[in-house]
Request: fold
Amino acid sequence: MIKRVLILKNNLPLINKNYEPGHTPIQGNSLGDFQSIIDTISKKVVLGQQNEELIGDLKLTYKQVGTTLFVVSSNPNEEGILEILLPELETLFFAVFPQDYIESWQGDDVSVFKGFEAKLDQLRSAFENRIMTKSGSRRGLDTLSVMELPQRLQKTALSILDNKIASFEEVIAMTESSAQQAVANIQEILNAGFLYTTKMGNKVYYSVKSFSDAPAAVSTPVETTVQTPTPTPQVQPSTPVTQRAPGVEVTKRNTDKGNMPFLLKQIKKGMDQVFDAIVSRKLLLIILDPESDKNQVLLNMLLDTIQCFAPERELRIVNYTTDFIHPRDADIIRINRELLQYYSNEVVLDMDKKKVIQGKSSIYMNDIIQKMTKQKHSECVSLLVNRVSLIEKIALDWAKIKKLDLPSDDFVNTIRAKHTPAMLEIMERVASHVYMD
Reply:
């Protein structure tokens, strides 16, 4: 989890955003207990050099650019900050506030930088929801393995090897190749079993090895005792993909025990967003008062019904939590309402208020709902088994076409004619979220 992001000029905080739940905002330019950490960093930072180290129970990643110091605080096991988040943060900040403007800025009213926090929130959210290739699932790329590749691919492979990690745009710049050729070369290297990928928003990074294989940051004692108040609720550290987050149960629910007609009568608007989230492998948050035994029965029925949209898949479910759980660690989480402030992009099914919050409308899912309102539950299950299977097959084919940069017009026209234009939208969404990692 990203706990804090600081951008300072000559030790004056221009941006001081604390993401820890339960923290008390500090007025003015004071850094509070964090000041001793900044003092420790300032004594050792080297201009233009990225650093990462453990200070107390935090991992600090930082870089000095001119008079500007970028600092990201996170859990010790958070991966990819040094390689991805910090460079993106620097690029984004100087895109909004050019470096020459920052160097010449002599004011003490930092309110001019307040608007940047919204962009920072978007960047952090994209990073927190990034999709990474599992550690150990690929072959590490080194000089010897580059020689195994056809000569036409070696320039691309060597450019990524030299950089350790590179975005698609950086590969094009380093190899001076066209976008089409870069896609073809990278895909061939991936097909050969090399390279790890990290997708953050619409941007993909290619790395020679998994971030989890990187050496641990060096631990440095804090020179002054830092007393950090215990946040409430307590945020659990992000869980590596090889482990299961606390409270997460992996199970396949019994669709026969669901009740689709009842659910559609309870929630009359927005269920297309809920079902689209499940099909697209995105987190669904559920709010349902945990104090009632009746509501536990309702929850079980709800989960059994939602399973209909993942007929062949085991769902990662958290029955109830008052602690933050990372969106990538579960498919469905029943949360305490107070945790909503820490989830900015996830679909929320509020059973207490009988409404859906956030999410994107899906014409295709809405068409399915209209059919199901006239059917029994068993008929709904049969319909969904076929429809979900169809969506996943088409999305997989579409992902292969995109990865290999193959001509797509005939495929798109066939889908539009054989099914409906609405299929194109959900096809793209499932392909991007499920098959393009």
Q: What stands out?
A: The two ends are 21 Å apart (CA to CA). The longest strand covers residues 2-9. Residues 218-242 have pLDDT under 50 and may be disordered. Residues 143-209 form a domain with the Arc Repressor Mutant, subunit A fold (CATH 1.10.10.10).
